[in-house]
Specification:
The chain is 36% helix and 13% strand. The chain has 424 residues and is an alpha/beta fold. Strands 4, 5, 6, 7, 8, 9, 10, 11 and 12 form a nine-stranded mixed beta sheet that branches.
Length: 424
């Protein structure tokens, strides 16, 4: 069995677009007709350039190889161009191809991927979700409304979720770390207070940032939200400052989490050695794929650290996350995004049930991709999957930030349940 053909589909999820502006899906086919699907997480270049990168990586390191030889293919790609170091774009391309290899292997053996990577550890995976607007919320108001955030949190908890994530402190700017405005600190406290009052002790609060603060600024913000007992303080400083994570972790009584912008276990190693993070959030479409993530989980065990796979992408990466989560002992939880489009693209094969994801039993990733649906929603824009803003933090007026790929104000709102009620 040899890898023969590659197809790349760039799909744009319909509004409101949770999961980014587009998803890069890859389809591999073997010489005996078995197909496998993978997903490349948002890279540093546009989708047309990324197509070329994926095709180049496939031609150089994957085509004609056995899908079993994931370690050999990884080492070839990791060493590409005399580098032997993490490269976000190259590893993003390789990750999607590697995930597709595992999908093929599982289908060839009629076994789930988790069965090929150590076996079943977790029959149910604890899920968490970002707070998204409810149908009666005005999109433009939601991102700065502690009251709406609390209502969204209560809705998730009513449907069984035991953890909710919020990121009210903006902005995320290309200028690097900054001190938070007092208005950002006050807004963060208001969100945490309102959410804690709404959910009580029924759910953890996951406080998200995206590397926007200096070390001192992150510590100031962390101290302000400590009284509300967040389970984690996510990416408090920019990812290019790994040693500074340890200073935050030592000063703030909230576990530090990070990882969505890191690639390969080599970039996580410094965080583990220095105590910079105790919760690791690899994005499987960027970190190097399933096998590299499995090795990262084993490495994290030795440092008493836990894994919480990141997701701001499509359902194929989610399916890979769930396969990894099912087989590792140091799992904390897994991120989810529930929309009708996510659900339809994989035929409802994976769903959240009362706040947990049952481990799939089907072969490979446990999904069947609706290829026609993916092709029916091509991406025609010119923006990246996620983008930083140019403008600096505003210390005079409130900062408003709706994410790296904000939907238009008139976009329809899907409830976080994907338009399904509890138990549907």
């Amino acid at each position: 069995m040899k890898l023969r053909d590659l197809d790349i589909i760039v799909t744009a999820p319909p509004a409101p677009g949770w999961g980014g502006r587009y998803w890069i899906l890859v389809k591999l086919t073997t010489d005996d007709g078995i197909t496998g699907w993978g997903e490349c997480y948002g890279a540093s270049v546009g989708p047309n350039a990324m197509r070329a990168v994926i095709a180049d990586v496939f031609a150089r390191y994957v085509e004609g190889e056995s899908p079993e030889n994931v370690e050999r293919m990884f080492r070839r790609a990791y060493s590409s161009g005399f580098t032997q170091r993490a490269d976000l774009t190259l590893m993003g391309a390789f990750s999607g191809l590697e995930i597709a290899c595992w999908d093929i292997l599982g289908k060839a053996r009629d076994r789930p991927v988790w069965a090929l990577m150590g076996g079943m550890m977790n029959e149910r995976i604890r899920a968490y979700s970002y707070l998204y607007p409810l149908p009666d919320h005005r999109m433009a108001d939601f991102w700065t409304s502690a009251e709406m955030a609390a209502e969204s949190a209560a809705d998730l908890v009513a449907r069984g979720y035991t953890a909710v994530k919020v990121d009210p402190a903006g902005p995320y700017t290309m200028r690097g770390g900054h001190q938070p405005a007092m208005s950002d600190i006050a807004q963060s406290v208001a969100f945490c207070s309102a959410i804690r009052e709404a959910v009580g002790d029924r759910a953890d609060i996951l406080f998200g940032t995206h590397g926007q603060f200096t070390t001192a600024g992150a510590i100031r913000l962390g101290h302000a939200i400590e009284p509300y007992g967040p389970l984690w303080f996510e990416e408090p400083v920019p990812p290019d400052n790994p040693l500074e994570f340890a200073r935050v972790a030592q000063a703030v009584r909230i576990p530090v989490a990070t990882g969505e912008r890191l690639s390969t276990r080599s970039e996580f190693a410094t965080l583990l050695r220095t105590g910079g993070a105790s919760i690791l959030q690899p994005a499987l479409g960027r970190v190097g794929g399933l096998w590299e993530a499995r090795k990262l989980a084993a490495l994290a065990e030795s440092f008493n650290a836990q894994i919480a796979p990141h997701l701001y992408a499509g359902p194929i990466e989610w399916a890979a996350n769930v396969q990894l989560a099912a087989t590792i002992p140091n799992l904390l939880m897994a991120e989810t995004i529930e929309t009708p489009f996510h659900d339809a693209l994989i035929g409802g094969a994976i769903r959240v049930e009362d706040g947990f994801i049952p481990a799939p039993g089907g072969p490979g990733l446990g999904i069947e991709v609706d290829e026609a649906l993916a092709r029916a929603h091509p991406y025609t824009g010119d923006g990246l999957h996620l983008q930083m803003q140019d403008d600096p933090c505003d210390y005079a007026q409130p900062n408003v930030f709706a994410g790296g790929a904000p939907p238009p104000d008139d976009a329809p709102v899907y409830p976080a349940s994907g338009a399904r009620g509890k138990g549907d």
